[in-house]
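DM from R.C. (forwarded with permission)

"hey, sorry to bug you on a friday — could you get me a structure for this? deadline for the figure draft is monday and I only need the backbone to look sensible"
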Amino acid sequence: MGLREMPGVLLVGSHPSSVRGVCNRTRTPVGGGVLVVDELGPELYDAIVTSAAVICARGGRTGHMQSLCRSRGIPVLRVEESALDALTGEVTVRLDRQSVVVGELDHAPRVLTDPVAGLDAIESICVVVTAASDIRSTNALVPRVEQVDCFFIREEFACYAASLSPIDSLRAGPDEAERYGHAIAAQLCAMADELLPGQRLVMRLLDLRSDAAAEITSNVELADEPNPEMGLHGARWLLAERTYPHAFRAIRTHLRERLGAGADRVSFAVPFINDLDEFLRLRRHLGLTAETPLGVFVETPAAVHSAAEFCASGASELFVGTKDLIQFYLAADRGNHLVASSYQTRHAAVLAALRQVVASSGETGVPVHVFALGADVDHYARHLPVHRIMMCTAELRQLATRIAADHR
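My reply, with the result:
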């Protein structure tokens, strides 16, 4: 059979200009294969992280599992749903052409030559990771990226790595919630062991939407929400979950027992929060004293307008989650490819919101970290008063490698 090339849309890039592998349609781990699925979800975590590439028919650039792929350097190509059936045997994902070729190529595709952004204007980089190995590989870069002083992990990714079902554990009572907390803390300790002097680790507290939770929950019946993105998750879910404080207390206790004074290098941030009232209620719910640092994720327009209040009321730092913020500002679902053209990371309204949050720290000196896709780092640095950014592991690695090559 001759070669057949099918066009697609590249959702997540990587450094090589092409990736070759055998199609995996089983939804189970196949090392080095090309995972072919209709849509990415948390139930596919093990299959995703062992894949060389992913091909799907639905989703946008900044979905949660696409973010996992971006951290791991796993390219994701979206094709028409009707094209999935033709993807069998060996395929080559062509990043340079945003396509997939069925069959064996007898020549190497050209090397990508996108402009190289610089990091000179960036003072601090918080690297988004999914495992301890990501911290290790970042710190092993030659030359080392000196601005990397912080690593960030989502609690739900720590769950996936530990094969935990958080809802099942938390709803089984305080004892199981505490066991869950110890398991999460063990993941954090492994990451903390990889930190260099002057580096720290931040975990964003559990933010599992009901549709994602349903895929990994076995023993609890979950409500079927009509719009999970705007439903019961983030800070509002944490406030409603009675046993989560038991899990959170177990996390902090285990960290202190295992790391001693080094536990201060691990801190936490609140996801998907709207205003100061939620922030203060959540601090009380978690049993935190005024001296305990707690960061805030700014992901909604309401949070943008509350940013100055967060800073004045004890938030230790702000993290601007641009992926969610953009979809709410522009009313464009980041996981819906039908509105991908409306999801604009450099839209004037988005840039205005980012400026407002950065300026909100005022004289408090509260650090503000802005998440940026690799393609936006240079643009944000030049057009915003941004000196602290967040970016995914693999994108930083690609950028650092190309900067080093450019300076040779």
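R.C.: lifesaver. Residues 108-114 have pLDDT under 50 and may be disordered.
me: no worries. The longest strand covers residues 18-24.
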